[in-house]
Amino acid sequence: MTSAAPIVSPPSVAVASLRDAASHNSLREAIPTFTLTHFLAAVGRSLLAGLPAQVWIEATVVAVKASAHGHQLELVESDGTGGAPTAQLRVFLANEVRRGIVQASGAAFDPALLVGLTTCLRVEPTFSPRWHLQARVLGLSAATHQSIERLRVDQLRQTLQREALFDRQRSLATPPDLTRLCVIHPTGAAGYADVAAELDRWQSAGLLILRHYQAPFEGERAAAGLIAALMMAADTVEGGRPDLIMIVRGGGASAGLQSLNNESLVRAVCRCPVPIVSGVGHAIDRTLLDEVAWRACDT
Q1: For 121, 126, 141, 150, which has the most beta carbons within 10 A of its beta carbon?
Q2: Interval 22-45: pLDDT, tens
Q3: Which residues touch 231 (CB under 8 Å, ≥6 apart)?
Q4: Could you give the CA distance from residue 129 to residue 171 in angstroms, rounded to a whole number?
Q5: pTM (2 decimals)?
Q6: What is the Cα 77 distance to its own chain's centre?
Q7: CA torsion sign, 132 to 137 to 138 to 141?
Q8: How far is it, in rounded angstroms, from Cα 189 to Cα 211?
Q9: Which domains are seen in the chain, by residue range?
Q10: CA dist., res. 187 & res. 190, Å (int)
Q11: What are the C-alpha distances in Å from 80 to residues 76, 83, 84, 269?
Q12: Phi/psi class of residue 221: alpha, beta or left (left: φ > 0; alpha: ψ in -120 to 50)?
């Protein structure tokens, strides 16, 4: 029995195969090779090189997830048809940035209030091979601050109404006489000088006993300072409990009124057994403190 003859490629086929192999090797050498990590890192560098160091992003926040170091916000943009989002991005709000926002605004800031809001965030674009394109939040626009504050105040107002605290001050009886008066005011407020001058004349004439309590109206410590002053004012004046407490700021920038929407302060005003008159801003500068006080006056 004879063995089969080996199959031999025609010379032209063998030459073509060698040529293809050489071409493939040459192509492999001409095109750089990356690991996946190095490839994505290179993509990130190229991407970030084409972007400013900081940008403002307008988008809707659809989810907020808290972590030990901050909050992750899920941003989306849609075309308005109700379909799938046309763009999505995750951004990170670090705890230290949130504390800076609170310190700068003088008002509490719960990132969960951002859910459902169309916001404008100042961010620093970032990229990592694992998480791809993301961004770090550096700040909020003034309009976003205002939206958050309106939402927070609305929620607090509804809570106070459910707890039957919202109208408690207004249910207090009108003082039959005004002989003991306490006034809470900021240090060196120019607008308060006119009020003080008139009240001092009444006291000099023996018409009333007047006590002044100074407290900060702006900044992180404003609410705590105002509550402490309110507790002292509501305690005792010569002859017994005061007939009336006035909280007077005497005008100023509207941005400085945010502390007067503080929940702890507003609750303290609601529970105070002494009628409180607020005079903390102009007619357009309505605060929650004005809403719950026994009476509110424009400055």
Answers
A1: 121
A2: 666 676 678 889 999 999 999 999
A3: 268
A4: 62
A5: 0.73
A6: 21
A7: positive
A8: 16
A9: 44-162 (2.40.50.140), 169-296 (3.40.50)
A10: 9
A11: 12, 8, 10, 44
A12: alpha
